[in-house]
Amino acid sequence: MAGLLFAGGAQTTTQMIGSGLLLLLRHHDQLGRLIDAPELIPSAVDELLRFESPITLGLIRHAADDISVGDISIPRGDLVFVGVASANHDERRYSDPERSDVTRQENPHRTFGHGPHYCLGASLARLELQTVLAALIEQYPTIRLACDLPMFRGGPSVLRGPMALPVHLGPATTKNTRKLE
Ligand code: HEM
To answer: Does domain 2-168 have CATH number 1.10.3720.10?
Structure first.
């Protein structure tokens, strides 16, 4: 349990900070909205979690019964990998799922899992992400990507996230007075 708390708590959040920031830096309109209205940061964090889950295929379960999902029959006892990233982009659940929208209100994403093993650190992770984002955009509102395409690491068994995220921070401000063009 201690290992799970440290490993599961640190890597996930680290990757999420990188992926979430990268998404915002690629969508300056969204970043600009947060700079104008920092009260949107909580909904923005959940949207980043939905859009760029660090756990893409992470929920592993055994089927409790024989079930069918679409055309696929899953016999009782079979191992099932739940596609979290796919569920988070389900067009039957989200309007315009391939668009990241920091103002999205209804956002029942599965990035923290579901059911009795729902992530124990979900509130802490949200708080960490909100704190990082608020501090960064307040202090460095002109932050920019320093290169075009950071490489992603990922795969079924690896947490997804950028291997590095070079940025130009720009001059630090103490007040939130600057805006992105
Ligand atoms: C963005 C950050 C995080 C993500 C995406 C994430 C994701 C998840 C997911 C999907 C599960 C459920 C696994 C399953 O049902 O099989 C889970 C469980 C868990 N998470 Fe997180 N997590 C994050 C941050 C944290 C943090 C910060 C902590 C603690 C400091 C933490 C501790 C745990 C623990 C202890 C469990 C197991 C809960 C149980 O089995 O009852 N996680 N996490």
So the answer is: no
